[in-house]
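Task card 7
Instruction: Convert sequence to structure tokens.
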Amino acid sequence: MAEQPSGFKDLLIKMMSRRWYITAMVLGGFMFIIGGMFFAILSKSSIEGEWKELLLLLLGAFIGSYGKIIDYWFSDTDKDKMLVQKMDEEDGVTLSHTNDMKETNKPFAPLMPDVFVQAAQRTAELTVIDHQREYELEKDQQEHEQEMEKLEFEHHAHRQCEHVWGDADGDGHMECQNCGLLQEEYKG
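Output:
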């Protein structure tokens, strides 16, 4: 008679025995601490402050572990159902199925909520507008500086000129024949 494969069955048995041992250790430690606390209360023994703090820390840690154990034993996980189904299929007779498994696909939740995406887009738009304003301001500043340099150059050129006044174009205004400065604008 051929021996039936038992790989998944052995795996499940080992997993479950480890889980039982861990559960027994955590629950045993929890019960030991609670029992010790009741014994100390009933015997009216005094406990120093440091030991009370340590005892409360241990109790808090065990309560967290106790919660995890309760979650494990009383929640149906799809992984466990799949393991049992594979173990059933191994011997050729399927007694369990995964059609009744809860839908594990969670609804789509974006990594970044829409509010953050919209705020980032608005910030990008404002940044573009700010950069455009800075560019226009710098451009205006450069044009202003160039105009000032031009005026300074013209003023300096007129100061160096030995003006020879005359009305060469016949418009009735006297201008310098060398630099073109109008005599009315000359302040020297």
